[in-house]
Design a protein that fits this description.
CATH class: Mainly Beta
Shape: globular
Strand order of the largest sheet: 23-22-19-16-13-10-7-4-1-24
Structural class: alpha/beta
CATH architecture: 3 Solenoid
Distance between the termini: 8 Å
Order of helices and strands: EEEEEEEEEEEEEEEEEEEEEEEHHHE
Number of strands: 24
Number of helices: 3
Helix content: 10-25%
Number of domains: 1
Strand content: 25-35%
CATH superfamily: Hexapeptide repeat proteins
């Protein structure tokens, strides 16, 4: 389903394929010979999405462009099923496996690989040719890689990245404590989708 959001419709190269039941919403540009799989969701929520040529966005992947962090995906990129990308940049020839999660402000270098359920945290810069192992977490600039059981080491870097401030605009407080203030505003901003129109 192609949706006009805020008066902007997706721009899809004539050689690209968008599967039935995929959703492409708003300021989204899809390059030549790119394939968007069944159940994938590409939504330019508050920032644009640009996907290059010869990419494969597999079934059920979610890609969100957000204010201050548009999505830019280069050429020859595979985004696996259940992957989740929000507000990030992905260079050419990158492999993002099943369940990979790439957060706001992250930058993925050329030929990098994020294996199954790997995470690249906010504002993290993954150098070219880096491999994030299965279930591991990349955090920082430059990225450091940690196994999931190294929570204290991850948190020591992640805390300074200020997730609540960077994503929600409220610094210095744990995420759970800001939800009563942040979620009413966030939910209201998402109401703009009520006016989306099929194209």
């Amino acid at each position: 389903m192609l949706l006009d959001h805020n008066g902007i419709a997706p721009r899809i190269d004539v050689s690209a394929r968008v599967a039935p039941m995929a959703v492409v919403c708003g300021d989204v540009t899809i390059g030549a010979n790119t394939s968007i799989g069944f159940g994938a969701v590409l939504t330019a929520e508050s920032g644009p999405i640009v996907i290059g040529a010869n990419c494969v966005i597999m079934d059920t992947a979610v890609i969100r462009g957000v204010r201050g962090n548009p999505i830019r995906i280069g050429d020859n990129v595979l985004v696996g099923p259940r992957a989740y990308l929000t507000g990030c940049e992905v260079a050419d020839n990158v492999f993002l496996a099943t369940g990979a999660t790439i957060f706001n402000g992250a930058r993925i270098g050329t030929r990098a690989t994020v294996r199954i359920n790997g995470i690249v945290h906010i504002k993290t810069v993954l150098a070219a040719d880096t491999v994030v192992p299965i279930n591991w977490v990349a955090v920082g600039d430059p990225a450091q890689l940690f196994s999931p059981h190294e929570h204290e080491k991850i948190w020591a870097i992640q805390k300074e990245l200020d997730f609540p401030g960077y994503v929600f605009g409220v610094s210095g407080k744990p995420v759970a404590t800001i939800l009563p203030d942040v979620l009413p505003r966030y939910a209201k901003s998402l109401q703009r989708h009520k006016d989306d129109k099929a194209v």
